Amino acid sequence: MQDKVIRKKKIVVAATGASGIPILKECLQIIRQDQEYESVLIMSRSAVLTLEHEMDCKKEEIERLADQVYDPEEIGAGPASGSYRTAGMLIVPCSMKTVAGICSGYADNLILRAADVTIKEQRPLVLAARETPLSPVHLRNLYELSKMPGVRIIPPMLTFYQKPECMQDMIRHIAAKLVEPFGIEAEGYRRWEGI
Question: What domains lie within the chain, and their CATH numbers?
Fold first, then answer.
């Protein structure tokens, strides 16, 4: 009798050209720590430029945290199809350009096509929407997306109730909130329990 192969649940994790790459790194580390999940990473060119500006590392270091990596131009890759099984998709950080592309169905690269597929298959799509201040155009697009089944908009907002002692504590808390919709409970995540 052969042992049944245990398949991990895939989360497509994309990064686009907005500030917040340290949160991406933390999300990938949290997913890697959970035995039931694996990550499929897609980084836009703008995300790579942001990474080189925000962190003292190269894209290869971030890519090593993922189980699979695709180029955004690989429009025929697995995540472009609804038959490619995933637990959903996380875009962190998610630029307003990406929000606009998703909202309008303009799927001209693998990130936008994977998001489009995630919506049509009604899987969880989590957007770490990153911009400030938000224009009326941004708000309209985010509002339209918020009405779609499975779409969650979780801006990377700082919180203080968990009494962070350093920047890494804040990054970890935000990352834990972003992976929670997929059923991942990050170690050390402190939920609000009242005053």
Answer: 9-182 (3.40.50.1950)
